[in-house]
Amino acid sequence: MDFTLEKPALGALAQGNTGTPGVWRFDSGVPGRHVLISALVHGNELCGAWALKGILESGLRPKRGRLTLAFCNLDAFDRFDAANHDASRFVEEDMNRQWSAERMADARSLERRRARALAPFVDEADWLLDLHSMHEPGLPLALTGLSPLNEAFAVALGAPETLVADAGHKDGVRMRDYGRFGDPAAIADQGVRSVLVECGFHGDPASRTVAQDQCVRLLALSGVADATDCEAALPGWRQADAPRQWLLEVTGGVVATGHDVQFTEPFQGLEVIGAAGTVIGHDAGVPITTPYDDCVLVMPSVRQARAGVTVVRFARRRPAVG
Ligand SMILES: [Zn+2]
Predict the structure, then answer these.
(1) Tens digits of per-residue pLDDT, 40-85?
(2) Collapsing DSSP states into helix, strand and coil, what is residue 196?
(3) What's the Cα-to-Cα distance from 213 to each of 48, 78, 115, rounded to whole Å?
């Protein structure tokens, strides 16, 4: 698929209004949830940047609680080139693996320093929508983590159709699992919720539509804005609810041992592989096989393959529960 989604011109929006570049915060002065919407954790994932730009330019401001909008990896985004978009995923290392006190305390990379600068905003958020997009064409996915309360949260949001309960990555902690967002007690007792939405292929304009839809769903569900305010300020952003929602329970993933990984077919994701033991690819000549019958492939991609990178996840499927 061609990369047709344009890079948004952020201009002065990249400055933010908090003293931390790229971070905007608006406080209604009225009690309510603190909602954080983050974009550009990966610099080549433009859909979320378009959505935040749209919110900022619309003049929509919170009616209750607080709203924080964060353009996260602006240094990577500044390097974006559609002809070589993978190169601007990050500058030094993947920002979405640095969300632990240990990594942030070790300021060895631009991304760790940036995560440390953003962490106070993540710490104080009650609800997080982290907007991402995908290396390959595919249907949108909401990554909910393992909490049933986050599954119910994604059902209450009403889209997308496919939810993924996954434990994150072996190579580091994601923003959506960081701090209270990864703490079952905080999720249960403090109403903390987080979801990472993969809105579709990086270069597909449909990914922007998904990101915009997710934003207005979150704003209305949180009470930070009324649905009518969202429709007035951001007309056409709200899309139809998913006709039904599935939860994929991720049971594990395949971590590459190096660059030499291929799949047997051009998998797009969400394929259901009938028989356990089916060979779906090879890593340095060693077969990659499915672990059980009716195994769903989640986000297969070998384009970033190198030692330590997850190239496909395996999942079982069931109806999502609200
Ligand atoms: Zn991403």
Answers:
(1) 999 999 999 999 999 999 999 999 999 999 999 999 999 999 999 9
(2) strand
(3) 11, 25, 26
Residues by chain with Cβ below 5 Å of ion ligand 1: 42, 45, 132
Q: What is the pLDDT of residues 227-248, one digit of tens each?
A: 999 999 999 999 999 999 999 9
Going from the Cα of 109 to the center of ligand 1, the distance in angstroms, rounded, reads 18
The Cα 96–Cα 169 span in angstroms is 9
Distance 275 CA to ligand 1 centre (A): 30
Which residues on adjacent β-strands are paired with residue 259?
none
Q: Identify each DSSP E strand in the chain by its residue range.
A: 23-27, 34-39, 66-71, 127-134, 141-143, 162-165, 193-201, 246-255, 261-263, 272-273, 279-283, 286-289, 295-298, 310-319
Ligand 1 centroid–CA 144 distance in Å is 14
How far away, in angstroms, is 29 Cα from ligand 1 center?
33
Interatomic CA distance for residues 236 and 67, integer angstroms: 21
CA of 304 to the centre of ligand 1 (A): 12
How many A from CA of 287 to the centre of ligand 1?
27
